[in-house]
């Protein structure tokens, strides 16, 4: 009985650890965008139209896939 309980608890821990890992997908479009500050306009690189670019929220053990389009 003790061996079955030990095996079952180990199996639950392993399945829980595998389930916690995630695949995270992001698509970034990088392009030059005119930016005006203090009456001066310059081109800056933006990611998805944002500066600074978007933050990546991941956990340790996650697998990250980033698709980057350079325009």
From TrEMBL:
Residue ranges occupied by any Plastocyanin-like domain in the UniProt entry: 30-71
Keywords, in A-Z order: Signal
An MF annotation (GO) of this entry: copper ion binding
Signal sequence range: 1-22
One Pfam family from the record: Cu-oxidase_3
Similarity comment text for this entry: Belongs to the multicopper oxidase family.
Protein known as: Laccase-15
Organismal lineage: Eukaryota, Viridiplantae, Streptophyta, Embryophyta, Tracheophyta
